[in-house]
Structure formats: C-alpha cells, structure tokens
Amino acid sequence: MPTLKTGGRFKSAVCAGEIMVVTASGDDVELTCGGAPMVEPGTETAADATVHPDHAVGIAMGKRYITEDESLEVLCVKAGDGALAVNGQLLLQKDTKQLPKTD
Amino acid sequence: MNVMMLLEMASGAFPDRPAFTDGERGVTYTYSQLFEAARHRAGSIRANGASRMAKLDVSNLGTPLGLFSSAWAGVPYVPLNYRLTDDEIQALLKRVTPAYLVTSADRVDALGGLDDVHAIATDSFLDAGQHPVAVEGDWAMDPDEIAVLLFTSGTTGEPKAAVLRHKHLVSYILSSVEFASAPEDDASLVCVPPYHIAGIAAIMSSVYSGRHVIQLPNFSAERWIELVREHKVTTAFVVPTMLARIVETLEAAGASDAGMPHLNSLAYGGGKMPLSVIEKAMTLFPDTDFSNAYGLTETSSTICVLGPDAHRDAVGSTTEAGRRRLVSVGQALPGVEIEIRDDEGRVLGAGERGEIYVRGEQVSGEYEGKGSVVDAQGWFPTRDAGSLDDEGYLFLEGRADDVIVRGGENLSPGEIEDVLLTHPSVADVAVVGVPDEQWGEAVAAAIVAKVGASIDMQELAELVKIELRSSRVPAHMKQWDELPYNETGKLLRRVVKATFEEQLA
After folding, report:
1. How far is B350 from chain A (nearest CA, A)?
2. Which of A64, B399, B466, B474: disulfide with B443, CB 3.0–4.6 Å?
3. Domains contained in chain A, number
4. Which residues lie closer than 8 Å to A23 by C-beta, 6 or more apart?
5. What is the ipTM of this complex?
6. What does pTM read for this prediction?
C-alpha cells in the first residue's frame, strides 16, 4: 500500500471500514483492516472478501486508533467489522478525555 | 484532512438530525441536507473560478454552508465583519480577490461592482434552484491547504489575516470533541459573530458532536432568553458583556432563578469576566455547568478551559487563592502546552507575570503575507500577558503591549485594575499608560461607579498604595459612565488611552 501520510484516507478491502491518518512517522508500514491491506478510496475490492476471524473486533466511527508506540494514529471515518493492525499487531483504541463544552 | 470530513461523518451517522436552525427565519438544515447543499455550492464556487469565498452577513444557514462548501471546493473561507465601515470592508475585500462573495441583498450591487468580486445575495446562495451543478469528486485531503482566512479584530492597527489550515482546525476538533457525543435532543445557541474564531469553532464542534445549532444573528439579552426557552437549549457560549446583559435582564424582571433548567452548560470567553457577573450568573443558573474558555484566532479557538468543577470549587473555597481561581481561564487542553516568558525569552516560574506562549497541533500563528511568527520549537507568542499558578491555572493580565513603563519599571494594568475592582464602589475600571514628561509614562485609570455609589478618588489611591506600592497609584483618575468594549467584549484600551491623552494635552 502507499506510504501513510497525515490526512491520507484509506478503506478496508474486506469490510465497510474507512480511516484517515492523523499522525504517521513516515516509515513504510502496512496497515491492515480485517487482516487485509487497506486500499485507497475508489479501489475495486472483491465482493466475496471476508474479515479474518482474528481481526474482527471492528472499528467505530469517530474513534481513534494507535499503535503501541503511538507512531501511527488513525481516525475511523466509517465503521466496519474488521480490526486495524500493523505488522499483525492490533491497534489500540485511544481514549478521548471528555472536556467541558466550550463552543 | 479536511473540515468537510467532519460534516461527512456527521451526515453519515445521523443524516436526519437537525444541524442548523436560523433562529430568526425559522429555517433548518438537517445534516444530510447541509452535506448535499455543500456539494452543490462547491460546484458553483468552482465554476466561478474564485480563489476565495467571502461571506459578509449576519449568522444564517449560509454561514455553515459557506465554511463547508469552500472546504469542498478547495478555496479559503473568509468571513468578514459586517460592522466595519464601507471603506474598511472594501479594503479587506480587495485583499482576498478573486472572491466569490455572499452578502446581504443591499450590498450586492456596490460590492459586486468591485474588480474580481462576484457578489450574490445570501438568499440566492441558499436557493437550491440556483445551484444545480454538484462539484465533481471529493475534497482534497492535503492537511496544509488553507481552510479559513480570518481577519483579527485589530484593536490596534490594520487587521491581519490569520491563516488557519485544515490540519489546525481538524486537530482542534479531534482533540477536544468526542464524535457523536451529543444526545439527540441537545441544542446549542450560537450568538457569537460568524467572523469570529468562536463562531467558526462552534460550527465545527457542534457538527462533530451531533448537536443542533440555533443561530441568533443579532444578540439581545431578551431574544437570547426567549430562544433558550423556546428551543430548550442545552448549551451556549457567550462573551462577558453578553452574560452581564443576560444577568441584568433577569434581575430587572425580578427573577431569582433564570428558569432554564435544561441549560446544562454555559461557556464564556473572549474577554475578561467581572467576578460579580459570574458570581451572580452562577446563582441565577443553579443547574448550569459554567466553563471559561481562553483562546485566540491564531490558535484555532480554545487552548485553556476552566471547567464546571473548578468553578464550583472556587466559589465554595474559603481561601483567597481558591476564590481567585474563578477569574483564571483554567488549564491547557490536552495536546496544548503553555509557558510564561519574560522579555528576554526566559521561562518564568509559577506566579510570575510575563508573556503567554503556546504550542500544539492546533496552533497556526501564521498571517497572510507576513508568514509565521512561531519559533523553531513551535511556540507562538500570544502577545497576551499572564501567569500560571502552581497547578497550571492560567491568569490573564491584559495584552503584553499594554504594559506601562514608568521610570523604567514595568507595571501591569491588570494588576492595578484587580486591586481597584475590589473596592465596593467600583463597577468597572481600565488602567492605561499616558505620556509623562518626568516618568516617560504615568498610570491613568478610568473608573465606572456601581449604581448608587460615589467614588472617592483619594480612597482608591490609598487602596492601591497599600495593596501594591506607590509607583502603581494612578496619577490620573477619571470617572466614566461606561467603558468602551468591542462587540466581542474586548476592552478598547486605545480608546481609553486616546481620551486621556486628549484631556491631558
């Protein structure tokens, strides 16, 4: 897959999930969703593709996901059944501190 | 990365929820309607070939539509201050051509006649029939594209155009708002001007949290109270002068309780909040959470918040230091760092006054044609003066440029004002420096008396001398009926200064 750059958008090849890159180290890493490499929006994907059972916890819209070393952070912009992973290592959901409403 | 993505997510998650309602015209866009409208207005902007989209009008449905359709079309959105004079407006407009201008009907002919300005009336912008062609394709995801050009209020000198890129605005929203966190019946009343950063921030954070925005185009306390009750508003943002009027209006009606139990949260910011106003407001709105937000145009809005718990703790505190927290602007948001530095750039410790510096993803610190004023380590000098306490609560002390230099000694107007405000006869006060032959500058104070109170200048001078020292005692004191503020509640010090200089000349 192409290099992950801040602002870049990708979709899952095996479910409805889509993400946007929030921060990236610029290193070449392969981001997968549901066990399959993510692809650029508009790429044709196989209709019969399925989510790998080990990568099936799903992603929720508006949640942010990070690698353990926080070198990669992505935002889920469309929910999907697949889980995100880099080098087979599942990404973690980042907690957002609930702040008082100010605007 | 593009602010349009925030609307796309909202429209995908809750397409049929009301997104924006014009409180005066009574018309509403749902999230999916706003998304589709943005697609078509982006088509019109692209077809026109303009490089900026400008909006010169009060808040209405064209405000969020302007922001999002510009983002989709890939041109900066430039909201202009409709309170400026015609000459000032034309001067700003000439700086953003070729422009696609959406404005009130009465201005279309005059402004549309300027070179490289395509002017249409707000009603035409909102009329779907006049925008049949949808823009092709998605918006750009380049985080460095400019989302908004915002002319700073320019309380001194010519307005500067602050550059806010998509990465700044999106970072601000992602770090401060949880997606879809608003309950379905949440409603927010927005009465800040659309050309103010708080107005831009309100659009984005409401969309991302899924809140229904009720727009109040021309603020009056009576109308604000009516709309809050009519729409069962749950959250609102006001500037200090607005809150003061709301409190006055409720008190004049003899209310001991505002009678708005649904108003869960009331945030304020944009200027210094008098202690007496916030204390009264907290009594009148017993069920409401108060938050004080501090931010700048150049920092994509809020960087510090004093939250509801801190408000209650301060009011309930038995110590002076504890109660003083109520006039602080709180602690830095996650991802935002704050430092206080002296004139030589040294970082100061707790309790020391200096200039406020800020760093974070949401900080732009860049002006069109002037470049970035952010240093190599990413710090932006706010030109605001302040201090941090030992728990990181920030206290504002006015603008760094307002410092009075008397005989080589730096005096903070805020420090002297705080002392004068503790006197029971003083309602409001502004301290400025005026030219002085002997000292270079002398301290001058414009004082507003509380209703029914009379001012004893000698007593006030004595108070400053005891609390501070004799060099801080104002050499000139004048009683004013009221102090000059701009429409967002910023004290116009230069007006106070100029008036003193005239009187002393």
Report:
1. 25
2. B474
3. 1
4. A6, A71, A72, A73
5. 0.91
6. 0.88
